[in-house]
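Late entry, written up from scratch paper. The run itself happened at the end of the previous shift, but nothing got recorded in the book at the time, so transcribing now.
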Amino acid sequence: MIHELSISHQVLMIEEVEHELLPQFYNLADIFVFPTVMKTEGFGIVALESMACGTPVIASRIGGIPEVVREDQTGFLFEPGNFQELSEKINVLLADDAMRANLGRAGRELVESEYTWTVVAQKTLDIYRAAIMNYRFGR
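Output as recorded:
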């Protein structure tokens, strides 16, 4: 499709990247598109990785992704399989440098405040503590 549309000079298709090189690729991108249609998509760690690098995300509104990619705050969401909506959102972001910068900055701030390993570990400990307290006191 890329060749049919004569956009090969604008699109970089990569099969596999070593994990430690991912930030370099996210930083090269103007936007990160995550068009999954998997109803079992739990969370979408790739969206967080992109946001941690300050790259705005356009992702499917499915599974746990909307908890991470917040519409008009850290990126855009579209209905799975609705490629018209996806293309419109891509065009909006590509046309607006300031919006891309703002969404990218907000995404990075969200990752730093809510999704660092320290924060996630603390939230997990809090859940276990609450479960233990409920068990001990029969709540």
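The chain has six helices and three strands.
(Scratch paper discarded after transcription.)
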